[in-house]
């Protein structure tokens, strides 16, 4: 039994906005609760979509899109239900941090959660075992946050398990229509895998990042999301566009060979740009040591070929920091 109380009735038709109350007793507020914003727009029978922003608190694009759509979508345009979490890990989002300042929890590494656990684990449990059990789709809007920058607007989805699922998934990703879609292996602690455990299909976005909100990426992601909601028959009316924003190219991301990490503490100098095509063995970055001026920089190399889709933003690095992320085109 979850410790979280939902102020709104998810079974009621219409437009409802309130808070998920997560009890949290601290020195300044003995009987207090954490206010996690939640909304529901429901109208009769149809698909159920859980739409999330703020899974990581320093990723702002999803928070803007989800909160905007809560205000803009009218119940008469809906057939089914939209459940909105604009700041899913509210403590992290309120602080502008990737992880919660209350318990250090990373929501997207906390599933399936713990109903009686620390705040992040309790939120994960509620999402998986109370919200996702009723949903057919999870749309989880991410970006690179404050430490990473993605090249444009991208989507991620778990690798399909059979040809039928592959056909359905590619149709959904094509309807969302962002330029790239990365297919990756399931990770049991991610929200996407939580959705799969509960029988839902998940689409995750990665929209720019660097602690900013880019107008063009926000526009394309909103366009694609609304087109997808129309495609599945949940949304009609004036907000639904005539088609997707772009034609989607499909990529695979498979393990450590598609990532470059720092093995030294210093200042990193990128040797390539986002969108570049690279080959295995190509130099990726140099790590400089300004505190030891006579020490030669160390070069990091790509372990595989692919397209550079993500890079680290802060130049200061420590051992274990991710510098680059590649994706490999799928040959159809």
UniProtKB/TrEMBL annotation:
Domain Succinylglutamate desuccinylase/Aspartoacylase catalytic: 46-231
InterPro entries per the UniProt record, alphabetical: AstE_AspA_cat, N-alpha-Ac-DABA-like, N-alpha-Ac-DABA_deacetylase
Cofactors (names): Zn(2+)
Protein's UniProt keywords contain Hydrolase: yes
Origin superkingdom: Bacteria
Matches recorded under Pfam families: AstE_AspA_cat
Keywords: Hydrolase, Metal-binding, Zinc
Any one GO molecular function term: metal ion binding
SUPFAM superfamilies assigned: Zn-dependent exopeptidases (SSF53187)
Record-linked PANTHER family: BLL3975 PROTEIN
Protein's name in the database: Succinylglutamate desuccinylase/Aspartoacylase catalytic domain-containing protein
Species of origin: Paraburkholderia xenovorans (strain LB400)
């Amino acid at each position: 039994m979850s410790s979280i109380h939902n102020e709104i009735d998810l079974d009621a038709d219409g437009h409802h906005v309130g808070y998920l109350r997560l009890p949290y007793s601290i020195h300044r507020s003995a009987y207090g609760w954490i206010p996690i914003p939640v909304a529901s727009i429901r109208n009769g029978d149809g698909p159920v979509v859980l739409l999330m922003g703020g899974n990581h608190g320093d990723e702002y694009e999803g928070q803007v899109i989800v909160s905007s759509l809560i205000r803009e979508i009218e119940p008469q345009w809906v057939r089914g239900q939209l459940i909105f979490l604009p700041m899913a890990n509210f403590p992290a989002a309120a602080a502008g941090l990737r992880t919660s300042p209350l318990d250090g929890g990373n929501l997207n590494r906390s599933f399936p959660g713990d109903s009686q656990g620390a705040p992040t684990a309790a939120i994960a449990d509620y999402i998986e075992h109370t919200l996702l059990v009723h949903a057919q789709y999870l749309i989880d809007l991410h970006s690179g946050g404050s430490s990473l920058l993605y090249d444009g607007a991208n989507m991620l989805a778990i690798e399909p398990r059979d040809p039928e699922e592959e056909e359905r998934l590619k149709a959904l990703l094509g309807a969302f229509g962002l330029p790239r879609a990365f297919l990756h292996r399931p990770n049991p602690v991610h929200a996407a895998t939580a959705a799969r455990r509960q029988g839902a299909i998940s689409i995750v976005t990665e929209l720019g990042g660097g602690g900013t909100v880019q107008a063009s990426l926000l526009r394309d992601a909103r366009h694609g999301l609304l087109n997808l909601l129309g495609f599945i028959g949940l949304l009609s009316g004036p907000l639904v566009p005539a088609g997707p924003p772009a034609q989607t190219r499909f990529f695979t991301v498979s393990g450590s060979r598609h990532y470059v990490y720092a093995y030294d503490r210093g200042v990193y100098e990128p040797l390539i740009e986002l969108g570049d095509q690279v080959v295995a063995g190509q130099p990726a970055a140099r790590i400089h040591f300004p505190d030891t001026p006579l020490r030669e920089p160390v070069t990091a190399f790509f372990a595989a070929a692919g397209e550079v889709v993500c890079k680290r933003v802060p130049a200061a690095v420590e051992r274990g920091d991710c510098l680059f992320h590649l994706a490999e085109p799928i040959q159809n």
